Amino acid sequence: MWRYAVGAGAALLLAFGGFLLFQHGPAHTPLAAVLPPMPGNASAAAPLPDAAPEADAKTREQKRFDRYDKDRNEAISRDEYFAARHKAFAKLDTNGDGRLSFEEWAAKSITKFTDADADKSGTLTRTEFASTAPKRRPPGASRCACGKPAPAPAAKADEEENQ
After folding, report:
1. What angle do CA 159, 57, 82 make, to 5 degrees?
2. Which of 104, 103, 132 shows the shortest CA–CA distance to 117?
3. How far apart are CA 70 and CA 82, in angstroms?
4. Average pLDDT, whole number, for the chain?
5. Staple partner for 62: which of 11, 32, 47, 58, CB 3.0–4.6 Å?
6. pTM of the entire structure?
7. CB 116 within 8 Å of CB 129
8. Is residue 116 a contact partner of residue 123, using CB atoms and an 8 Å limit?
9. Other C-beta atoms lying within 10 Å of the C-beta of residue 69
10. What b-and-e string marks burial along 22-46, b requiring 16 or more CB atoms within 10 Å of the CB?
């Protein structure tokens, strides 16, 4: 029974809060008072173009197809399709024998282990292991790409395809 009473009380409080909010209405401050004045003379701005720019008519899949079709014959051969994979494999195959050994595949991890093994004992102590922890961003740090140039759309899509 007490649950009903608490629920009714909460509903009344919400209704009263809504009444107070809507009774006062929105703040009527002029927009000019809120916005800072524009620097310089507004009439000295560059003239607007005669026509608005138009978006590319190609769809995402058409653009993706065009990235793979290197010889532009409107067909993707097996070699064209796997070209990105060949490049990624070639980066890992450091000795160029066409075969990927465990050491070649795990080269980054092996280097990280050997760099962390300060006493060169072949094992990591707790202190040495702590040095392998990934660097964390401080809490509240945004993932803003401000100031960094955006990757080219073709390169970004190729990276997504390779993953």
Report:
1. 30
2. 132
3. 12
4. 79
5. 58
6. 0.37
7. yes
8. no
9. 15
10. eeeeeeeeeeeeeeeeeeeeeeeee
